[in-house]
């Protein structure tokens, strides 16, 4: 996106797909104006498989329906199979559109604290205690267990309701595995009533007719405005990065000055302590000398008497 925004001229490509008119593919800095890019797009499974990547958008996890950029999808169907693997759960969903799709539910390690109770041995029960026995009956053990998590935030998610035969509505991100489209689960709802499923079908059909079937079109003025905004955001990002670097530099400089000031104060206090120690040593010597003289004088007086 930054590369597109910083260039002085950005080409808008035009392609021709079978059965479609010419559709311009806008650069990534135009995506904020898209009705689909930041939306949960309701699609049938057959239409999800029709989504295609586009040259120039590699690595952005963006796929296109005509010229509409899509990264988040919403689908509804019945769970046909559920398979558990070490790092993921795989659901096979059928929505009667003529195709099935795999929905991937990721797994991640979550630390849990479990308590185990140690039963007394026969010798302990008889009262024959061994010095090597552990005095604690309970040990808290932190174990790593794998649980299903969402695709983006990696938050734990309870998938007990996702059983074979359940009708579900699923939101997720897109991925391709072995040239086949998959959905990575982010959220889900179990549809307990047929009316809920019919409502989803109606919303999906309306969005297909009103949005997806109409080519996405922007005027040159809007494209230029989006380019300027992206360039300004890039400039602001660079400025923010420079401010962070400058703030860090000032912080490090202040820490160095504080360190030097503390070290200087410590040296000064250390010299004072040395002088005090010398003064105390000299005072002790003078005191010892005086006491020795007084003791010698007292001894002479006693001898005289």
UniProtKB/TrEMBL annotation:
CST complex subunit Stn1 N-terminal domain segment(s): 60-103, 160-236
UniProt key word Secreted: no
Example of a GO cellular component annotation carried by this entry: chromosome, telomeric region
Species in which this protein is naturally found: Talaromyces islandicus
Protein's name in the database: OB-fold nucleic acid binding domain protein
Pfam families for this protein: Stn1
InterPro entries per record: NA-bd_OB-fold (IPR012340), Stn1_N (IPR018856)
Residue span of region Disordered: 117-136
Keywords: Chromosome, Telomere
Subcellular location: Chromosome, Telomere
